[in-house]
Amino acid sequence: GTQSFGTFAFKEPPSVQGLPKSYSVSADGSPSYLTPTQMGRQELYKDVPFQAVFGMNKMIRSTSQAFAMTAAELDVHDAPDLTDDEKSARMSRASMIIMDELEFDANVVTMPLVFAIVVAAASQFLVGYNTGVMNAPANVVFPGHSTLSWSLAVAAFAVGGPLGAVMGGRMADSRGRRGALLIDTWTFLLGGLLQTFALDMVTILFHVSLIVSRFIIGFASGFSSVLVPIYLGEQAPPSLRGMLGTITQFALVVGILVADLFAFPFAEEGKWRVLFAVTPIVAIIQLLMSPFLLESPRWLLGRDPKSLKARYIIKSLRGLRYDHEVETEVGHFMMGGAAQQQEQTSQLGVLSEMLRKRETRILLISSFILQMGQQFSGINAVFYYSTSFFEGVIDNPLVGTTIVGAVNVVATYAAMFLMDKYGRRTLIVWSSAGMLLSCVVIVMTLLGYFQNFIALLAVNAYVIFFEFGLGPIPWLIVAEMFDGRYVAVAMSASSQVNWACNFIVGLVFPYMNQYLGPYSFAPFALVLLGILVFSLTILPETQGSSPEELAKAMSRSLSQNVVYTSNVASNNEIDQEWRKAMEQLQHEEEAERQAGTYDYGFQPIQQEGEEAPVI
C-alpha cells in the first residue's frame, strides 16, 4: 500500500471548526500523519462538490491523477541516493498505486448506500415519468377539453417546479437531507393520488383537479431535482459522485421511456387512470424502503461536529471497522465542508458575490443562458407533445413517441463517453448546430419537401444532439467550474431558471403547433442559432484544468500546509524483495518448461490425492 511510500503531516493544525484533534495531532502531542491515499481522499473531498452530477467523472479522475502525480514527485524529491531511472520507476509505481487506492472507494458500495441510491433514483424516475406521461393520453383524458385547459395541465407541472426547487434547498437545510427526501416522497404520493382520481380538468374549489395535481407533482419534481444530487453527493465518497449522477440521469430518461411504453395498453378511455397510478405506487415503495435510509453525515456534522450518529452512519456507509478509520473519514468531511463553505448565508447574497467577481460572472451568466437555451430549444415540446405532433406525419404517433424515448436513453449512454473525451464548449457547439439542422429538416419535411418518415428521423437526430450537449452540459459546468462554496447556490438558481423556461414552452407550444403549423419548430431554430453564435463567440471553454495544471496548483497548496516525509529505505527493501521474488519465480518456471512439466493452462483440474498427468 501507499503507507510504504511516505507520510504527510500538517505544519499547523488546520483552522477548521470541529475537526477531530486526532486528524492533525497524535496522542503524545506530536503531529499525526496521513498516508498518501488518505491525503488524496482529503483533496478529493475538498475539490469535488458534494453533488452527484451526470458527467462529473472526468473532473474526479483528473483530480485523482493530479494528486497521484504530485505525491509521486514529492516521494522522489528528497531521494538523492536514487538514480534517474530508479526515480522514474518509483514515480510511475507510486502514481499507479495511489490511483488504484483512490479509485478503490468506487468499488465499495454498502447496503445503506444502495438503499439511498434506489430511493433517490426512484424520485428522478418519477420526474421523468411525469414529464412524459401526459404525452400520449391527450385525446382520452376528459374528452372534449380545450387546448388551453390541456396546455395548463401540462405546464402546471413546470409552475410547481421552480417553487419546489426553492423549497427543496431550504427543507434540506432545516429538516435534514433524509427528512426532506421523505417530504418529497409524500408530496409525490399526494400529487399522484390526486392525479389518478381527478374528477375534471380545471375545477379547483369543489373537485379534485388534474391541473392542481400536476402542479403538486411538478413541485415534488423541482424539489427532487435540487435535493437528490445533494443527498447522494453527501452520502457517497467523491469517487462515486459522478457515477451516481449518471444513475439518476438514466433513471430520469428511463422514466420518460416507461411512460411511453405504458401508453400502449393504457392510453385509452377507461384505462388512462392506470397511467397516472404509477406515481403513487412508486412513492409507496419508496416509503416502505425509508426505514433503511440514513441521514447525510455532512449535515449532521455541520450541526454537531461531535455527533455520534454521524460517526455511526459513516461507519455503515463506508464499511469501516475501526474507530480511527471513522475519525479520519470525519476529518475528510470536515475539511471538505470547510473548503466549500459559503461566506454568505442567503442565496441572493451568494449570487451578488458571484456577479461582482469577474471570473465567476461570465460563468454564472453563461450557465443561465445555457439553461434558457436548453428549454427554449424546444426539447420538452417533444417530450410533452410529440404524440400530437406526429399525428398526420406517421401512421401511429405513439410508435414515433416511443422510438424518440428509446433513442433518448441510448443517446444519454453515448453522451457519457463524449463528455470524457471532448471539451464542454465543443459539445455545446456540436449540439446546437446539430439541433438547428434537425429543426430545419423538420420544417422542410412538414412543408412537403421530404417524405414524412424524414420528420421522425429528424426528431430523433434532434434528441440525440440534445443529449450530447445542451442536455447535460448546462448542469455540468456548474459542478465543474464554480468553487465548491458556490455550487449549491448556482445549481439552485440554474434550476429555477430552467423550470421557468420549461413552463413557458409547455404552455405555449400547443398554440405554436396550432397557428404556425409546419413552422412550429422555426422559433426553436432561431433560439438554437443564437446559442450557436453565443457558444462560438462568448462562451468560455469550461472543461477545466488538465491533470498537469491541477498538479502544479495542488503542489503549491500542499507545500504551504503540509510536510511530506519520504520513506526511501523502506521502499528500497520492498523493491529488492519484489525483484528477488520475481527472479525466483522466473527461474522456477524456466526449469519446469525445460523439464516438460510446466502447466500452460491445459492441465485438468486435480482431485485431492491425484497426481497430475504428464503431457
Which characteristics define this entry?
615 residues, mainly alpha, 2% strand
Structural class: mainly alpha
Outline type: globular
Rg over CA atoms: 28 Å
What proportion of the residues form beta strands (DSSP E)?
Answer: under 5%
Helical segment count: 23
Spatial arrangement of strands, main beta sheet: 2-1-3
Query: What's the average pLDDT?
Result: 83
Uncertain spans: none
Instruction: Find the count of extended strands (DSSP E, 2+ residues).
Output: 3
Largest sheet: 3 strands, antiparallel
Q: Give me the strand/helix succession.
A: EEHHHHHHHHHHHHHHHHHHHHHHEH
Give the % helix: over 70%
Alpha carbon gap, first and last residue = 40 Å
Task: Report what the structure shows.
The longest helix has 33 residues, at 484-516. 71% of the residues lie in helices and 2% in strands. The protein has a 3-stranded antiparallel beta sheet. The protein starts with 5 loop residues before the first strand and ends in a 20-residue tail after the last helix. Helix 2 runs antiparallel to helix 3 (84-103) and helix 10 (297-303) packs across helix 12 (323-339). By secondary structure, the chain is an all-alpha fold. The chain has 23 helices and 3 strands.
Question: In brief, what are we looking at here?
Answer:
With 615 residues, the protein is mainly α. 71% of the residues lie in helices and 2% in strands.
